Amino acid sequence: MSSLFLQQLARRVLFFDGAMGTSIHEYPLDIEKDYMGRENCTEALVFSRPDVIQEIHESYLAAGADAVETDTFNGNVITMADQDLSDRVYELNVKAAQIARAACDKHATPDKPRFVIGSMGPGTRLITLNNTTWDEMLESYAEQVRGLIDGGADILLIETAQDLLQVKCAINACLKALNEKKKTPAMLGQGGDIPIMVQVTMETTGTMLMGTEMSAAVAALKPYPILSLGMNCATGPTEMAEHAKYLGEYWGKAISILPNAGIPTLVEGRTEFPLKPEPFSQQLGKFVRDFGVNIVGGCCGTTPAHITKLIEAVGAVAPQVKVEKKPLPAQVSSLYSPVESRQDTSILNVGERTNASGSRAFKKLLEQEDWDGMVSLARTQTREGSHVIDVKAVKTSRDNAADMQQIVQRFVRQANVPLMLDSTQPATIEAGLKCAGGKCIINSANLEDGEEKFAVMVNLARTYGAALVLGTIDEDPEEAMARTADRKESIAARMHDLATNKYGLPEEDIFFDPLVLPISTGMDKDRRSALETLEGVRRIMKRFPNCQTTVGLSNVSFGLKPAARQVLNSAFQHELVEAGLTSAIVHASKILPKNRIDEEQWNAAIELIYNRWPDTPVKLRDGTETKDPLQIFVNLFPDDAKEATTKTDIRTLPLEERLRKHIIDGEKQGIIECLEEAREKYTPLEIINDHLLDGMKTVGELVGSGQMQLRCVLQSAEVMKMAVAHLEQYMEKVEGETKGKIILATVKGDVHDIGKNLVDIILSNNGYTVINLGIKQPISAILDAWRQHKADAIGMSGLLVKSVNVMEENLNELNALSVSVPILLGGAALSKHYCESHLRSIYKGKVYHGRDAFEGLRIMDLMTTGKATQLDEEIAGRLDKRADVDAKLAALEEQKREREAGAAASSGLATLVRSNVRTDVEVPAAPFFGDRIVESIELEDIFPFINKIALYRGQWQFKKGKLSDAEYDAMLEDKVDPIFNRLKQQCVAEKILHPKVVYGYFPCGSDGDDLVVFDAKDHNKEIERFHFPRQKGSKHLCISDFFKPVDGGQRDVLGLSCVTMGQEVSTRARALFEANNYSEYLYLHGMGVECAEALAELWHKRMRQEFGIAGDDSPKIRELFTQKYRGSRYSFGYPACPEMSDQEKLWRLLKPQRIGCELTENWQIDPEQSTSAIIVHHPEAKYFNV
Question: What pLDDT does residue 336 have?
């Protein structure tokens, strides 16, 4: 009999309940009595307080829910062992299902039956993390399922899944228990007894906890007999939208979505969820209408009120919305992402180098148990073009199953590539499958040992959701391996019938291997092997077009010289692809296109493949003649023929070139040995001045031409520092031995020092003595240092506009003291023209503008070598050109003003006072008035909001340059992502970042260009007033326009926030700089800055949720960085609100000193890794210039 739940689902959208845990925590329960001494073990209430659990069920059923989840989220053997309840798991699940059943029966009617959902959470241990094993988890879940079934569950729900391997195991546990009970899984259109549902949890990162994309989950779970795939927990509906859209487009079965009421946060000791019932239901209702979602409900933070509103938004008897599905191509997948079995621009390349039978390098790594080396080899293959990697751990003297387990456990987490598990031993294959969350390929099954072993391999594929290679081998006692195209096709047809019709394996998951045999033996029986394989591929693909084909390509050239093998393999693959081949096990980087192979060699390979003999003999290099195409082909490759390589070994270069190369490449390895060799020929000073500094000069030239990036410069500087430190022990210290001295300082009130410190690095590694005073330095301290060290110049830096004003004040102070030392100025807010015109004109000495560290180096080089007049002439030339341009622009501007004045006079129109920003926008309700402090914020919640483009390209200076998109992406994956991931782990483990927030909401109203802020309690009492500039042209925008007028009869709401990552990150970064660890300094400093921005982004999202306006948020975090949301977040100092002194008003309102933030004289926030903002809810509020 078909499941009643399926019958209802076929007719309409079904509604699940909300949060069990949230509801339980509303009850005043005693830990000892109610929780049975097991704190936070809500499952214990099934035994002690069934009345509470049933009451919660009934509250959701009364709200209109069609189904309720049992209180068994953690009710499996593994998790209950932590609560000393593992021996009561069956009893627990039976009783929990009975409680839910009683509640459902009480509320059920013939028109509206109610259903019991057996809840199965992820538990506390994951297979992929090696916390448990497949077998242990399988039995743990199976015992839970037995209890749920016997207690009367209508549905089995695997929810909050964090690991694909856990999902696969739980599905198999459900199937095992159902089979024991003589029941079948129910699916739409197929009937059955009890449906199995799966819900994964997609974190704010956009993936599951283990890093799995939704597309990978779809690829891996598609083969299983489950009713639905969906999501629950972790985020609100907005963050789920992108994933829900993908499911709506590509998942061919039912879809369930149960979001949280937003992202939870601990506020003043309370866990709060920001999303109220109305916006929650509106957003989730869109999923039903737009994506065809047919099961909806709530997770953490959702209440009966949320479910009531949800039913109102969707409709109690709303039919399912039919959306057009896109065909899902045949796929395999890693734990992280899918790969299509049919590639658009190539065949599916399966890397062959992690095969102990064919790779001596891998075999050696296996013997040495060098697991990291194997991972490196696997990742190398992906960089070389492999879409899948073949894993074969077969060695007679070892436990092959144990080796396969060890290898796969590492590969699945450290190499983002699907795996082909290669063995004739089912136990070895299964050992790997039990560790692989993605959709693997099993290599292989055949009929050599009859149908019994064939069935074992096919059933492994079905159990673990894998694709399967079928080799054309049968029981023929004379010649089991099919040599002819006829036999290849015949055996393929037989295996296809068995695999699909008898065992239910999908056609798309079959990879036929028509077998490649060597044509390099010279034996007559082998000469047609390649030709027969080509024809076999052609026939199999014509007969079974939905299946795949694959071959072990390099078998064709077995025994030949490497150069000959490369040509023959390349030519044979070319012909196989023409015949319809879709995949090959191959060393992808060794396959060359036809245009890169000598024409004579290529033609000889083709003749050999097709076994075509010439009419007349060909003379070989040894003087003999032959018509044999194999001998003719081999003759083209002399003994010294080698495969081409582009790698240059630095050790082969001349000594002087090696010294420069170490500096230019930032290569530390071998530098000490190179220096010791150089000391036999040169003095330490000659090594430094003539060779190492020459390398640094080249570094500067490469930077200037855009061929080198900052990160590489820092690596070069570290090597330079290391080299000089090593040579100093052999040098006599001579007083005054320096190219020059400079005092560097960030000006008073400014906390930013990254730019100044980069100048320090470059100058100090190019022979200058640098006295770096640090941040917030008054002119008195700068002058004291200048006098003490008798420096040749002073360099001042600052980030913001106010710092430029301080620089001007400092110059005037120097004038008053009759000091005329050369000054270098730099910083983001200081333009070259302003420096060279205004600031240079007021100072009695020389002032120069340093755009970056290398321009600072050039200025110092020219000054200290008596060539400062060259700089002065260049400045004069720039000023003359600028004066000409300014004069022309002034004339044009005057003409424009005259035209506009004439037009205004003739029309009688006055300039608009206010913009056309809408004034009828509904004011969202503030969740509270006043301010709150939040100190318990998990870094894992902040990291997904880091703008990687700003971090990688801006802070860390990993620029694309001349790299292609593919090369740049590969560089980020190989070099930059590991740095990012390492720093995340380090910041958590070492408590480097201390995120804190103070934020609030205040009644407000606009008064012309002013924004009036009122008291949180007395909404008529003015407490602050901000004045914002208005655009003179364009739209005449002003921030105050985004708020309702102060005299309009209704108060608007202003949001304010200040966030910080704490002082520790600045302290750590400074220590790295002082230890000459420049790269790590740059990385950690940038990480701290972008984490502060990420926290601001996260908290702005939180405030939109509290406002109830987060429904307009893009589900893609990266699009939030471009304001794909309602409203705006403005920080002081930017064009729309440029007045930095307004920070003082925000300080009076929020009192950020309570989270460790202070204002400097320039109104910057200390610590540097902090930021503040005003939050505007108006939908038209975006960034604009004034």
Answer: 92
At 762-787, the pLDDT tens digits run 888 888 999 999 888 999 999 999 99
Token pair of 153, please?
Answer: 């569950």
* Beta bridge mates, 1060: 996, 1170
Helix (H) / strand (E) containing 200? strand 196-200
> What tokens does 705 get?
């031409």
Residue ranges of E strands in 798-921 = 823-826, 847-849
What the block records as the tokens of 729 is 């022990």
Question: What values do phi and psi take at 231, rounded to 5?
Answer: -140, 150
The token pair at 346 is 């190539």
pTM value? Answer: 0.74
Q: Which token pair is 304?
A: 């009966």
Q: What is the mean pLDDT of residues 792-808?
A: 86
Closest to 282 (Cα-Cα) out of 317, 312, 245, 240: 312
The answer to whether the peptide bond before residue 386 is cis (omega within 30 degrees of 0) is: no
Instruction: Give ∠ CA 366-407-558 in degrees, rounded to 5.
Output: 55
CA–CA distances in Å: residue 920 to residues 927, 1012, 1031: 21, 19, 22
- Segment 385-410 shows an average pLDDT of 90
* Residue 903 predicted with pLDDT over 70: no
Query: How many C-beta atoms surround the C-beta of residue 880 within 10 A?
Result: 9
Using CA atoms of 242, 247, 248, 249 in order, give the dihedral in degrees to the nearest 10: 90
* pLDDT(904) > 60: no
Cβ contact 758:809 at 8 Å: no
pLDDT digits (tens, 9 = 90+) for 1095-1147: 999 999 999 999 989 888 888 888 899 899 999 999 998 889 999 899 999 99
Rounded CA separation 583/606 (Å): 20
User: Looking at per-residue confidence, does 643 or 362 come out higher?
Assistant: 362
- From CA 432, how far away is CA 354, in angstroms rounded? 14
Exposure class string for 1053-1085: b at 16+ Cβ within 10 A, else e: bbbbbbbbbbbbbbebbbebbeebbbbbbbbbb
List, in order, residues 6 or more apart from 286 with CB less than 8 Å away.
241
CA distance 403 to 362: 12
Enumerate long-range contacts of 926-930, CB under 8 Å, 24 or more apart: 926/1001, 926/1003, 926/1053, 926/1106, 926/1107, 927/274, 927/1001, 927/1106, 927/1107, 928/1000, 928/1001, 929/1000, 929/1001, 929/1002, 929/1003, 929/1016, 929/1017, 930/1000, 930/1001, 930/1002, 930/1016, 930/1017
For the segment 976-1003, what is each residue's pLDDT rounded down to a tens digit?
Answer: 998 999 999 999 999 999 999 999 999 9
